[in-house]
Amino acid sequence: DHHHSTDEPSESSKPCCDECACTKSIPPQCRCTDVRLNSCHSACSSCVCTFSIPAQCVCVDMKDFCYAPCKSSHDD
User: Fold this and answer.
1) How far is CA 18 from CA 1, 62, 66, in A?
2) pLDDT tens track for 19-62
3) In the chain, what are the domain boundaries?
4) In whole angstroms, what is the distance from residue 36 CA to residue 41 CA?
5) pTM for this prediction
């Protein structure tokens, strides 16, 4: 059965974003436009998914910063 551990999140579940768009306002309004399969990153509070299989999900949270890029952790 699925249960969420209360331990420190692993490296892979830390919020990260490769495609991040910010406005030029102060403070900036930033939104991560990464498309992920079946879920959004761990810190996302507003996750919007398509009804396809697998679902394509985008986090629509507005932040005043961008998360660290995901790519750096696993280079091909």
Assistant:
1) 32, 15, 9
2) 999 999 999 999 999 999 999 988 999 999 999 999 999 999 99
3) 14-63
4) 8
5) 0.68
